[in-house]
């Protein structure tokens, strides 16, 4: 009998963009989420890019939807990366554009009762002890690269 070879489950490509907001003191605004596949992790505001939308338009829309802030815009592209996870029951390979901007340290408005967020100092970010999306965010912010860094597929 011939062994059956299982093909890896295919993943749907998904484009996303996120905006890292840095306060004047260097603190970073992040949400804490718990995905069934990857577990607890921290990530900047953002999400899937809608059809016809640019990554920059996406981060402005997502920031408004998730925080209520309308006065911030992406200043530069920090990095890109890809990762696999399940989004709304669909296995996806997500390609993310990570932008950086500066803004005041403030609370989201209106604050969602089920949103878990925090302003993290550079020291707190480096010693968080839980995964951060994108990986290496603390290092990238500690010595900001001149050109965007392409992290590739991170498993």
TrEMBL record:
Keywords: Hydrolase, Magnesium. Residues 12-142 form the Nudix hydrolase domain. Its cofactor is Mg(2+). The keyword S-adenosyl-L-methionine does not apply. PROSITE patterns: NUDIX, NUDIX_BOX. It holds the Pfam family NUDIX. Gene3D superfamilies: Nucleoside Triphosphate Pyrophosphohydrolase. It comes from the Bacteria. InterPro entries: Nudix_hydrolase, NUDIX_hydrolase-like_dom_sf, NUDIX_hydrolase_CS, NUDIX_hydrolase_dom. Belongs to the Nudix hydrolase family. This is NUDIX domain-containing protein.
